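Sample 3 of the quickstart, ligand 2-keto-3-deoxygluconate:
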Amino acid sequence: MKITEARVIVTCPGRNFVTLKIVTDEGIYGLGDATLNGRELSVVSYLQDHVAPCLIGRDPQQIEDIWQYLYRGAYWRRGPVTMTAIAAVDTALWDLKGKIANLPLYQLLGGRSRTGVLVYGHANGADLSSTIDEVGRYREMGYKAIRAQSGIPGLDSTYGVSKDRMFYEPADNDLPTENFWSTSKYLDFVPKLFEKLRDAYGPEPHFLHDVHHRLTPLEAAQLGKMLEPYRMFWLEDTVPAENQEGFRLIRQHTTTPLAVGEVFNTIWDCKTLLQEQLVDYIRTTVVHAGGITHLRRIADLAGLHHIRTGSHGATDLSPVCMGAALHFDTWVPNFGIQEYMRHTEETDEVFPHDYRFEDGFLYCGESPGHGVDIDETLAEKYPYQRAFLPVNRLEDGTMWNW
Ligand code: KDG
Ligand code: MG
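Result:
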């Protein structure tokens, strides 16, 4: 069997998605997600101009060799654009292998380790009381684990609070929106939110919260300590994680479980965090961390150090990524939780899939490969629209992390 085509499909059914379709001389194809929010076209070019020509004529079953060829062969290693492109190829090849073997992807990985994949949904509101109500709505929908984000008194906008009740889309068209941030206002408010949530819903639901890279290690340690009475499932991305050693300080001061890694691309981004057991959940996912092949290596290293997976699953990761992630989650021994932000109806129509949500869990399907397809005719009706993630400034105008 040989690869005859590697086609990049860009579509915007409400938001941009980039998909790689690898076609073979036997007519079987595989799909991989290549979406990098706000920087989509750089991955399109990387794939079209630099990867696709190298794939033609290769045996699609040599997944490991192709992965190594693209990683080592680039010379310029790592980085989000390169690793998203490699992930797209890798996911498409695993999908293809499943179709060739006539097996769902989780079977190729080693079979089922669990019946369903525990997911967390995103409840958010403009203020404390609407966020508390939204958490209730997610409980009614069956979620056992809920991420709560709220507008902060005194700040016009903040990360995680959506215009739409169901679908959070931070990427705006045209040019980046500017948000403003105050750490003191935030730190004053967040413990109150979780105190009220525990009062309202009792000990049972798992609560999660995303700081979205905005604190220093000392501030993160303070927040973690303040949240200890509310028994969080995790506190996510407290600080920007380029400096992995920074987590030592947070870890020394709090027992609140820590999650990190949605922006990581390789095992090298989390080597110290994993080996020193500085976090509890690693959030790397299929599309941004080199595909199934590399994610498996990260999960194995994490497992040695009592760290579980908690893959990123925001709406900018396409259903193709979600499908592949669910097969991975169904297999991976040290699974923790999977993020699940629902896609819009338009997106689900462009990407027909066989995974389903039921009572707080997602279940991957049994069709061969990862079980997600693309309707290319429909995809064509939604042309690319330039979109940016917001940027963030402190109240005095200093640039900050969004
Ligand atoms: O593209 C950026 C989003 O995926 C990110 O802001 C979402 O932090 C996020 C999360 O935890 O889902
Ligand atoms: Mg996050």
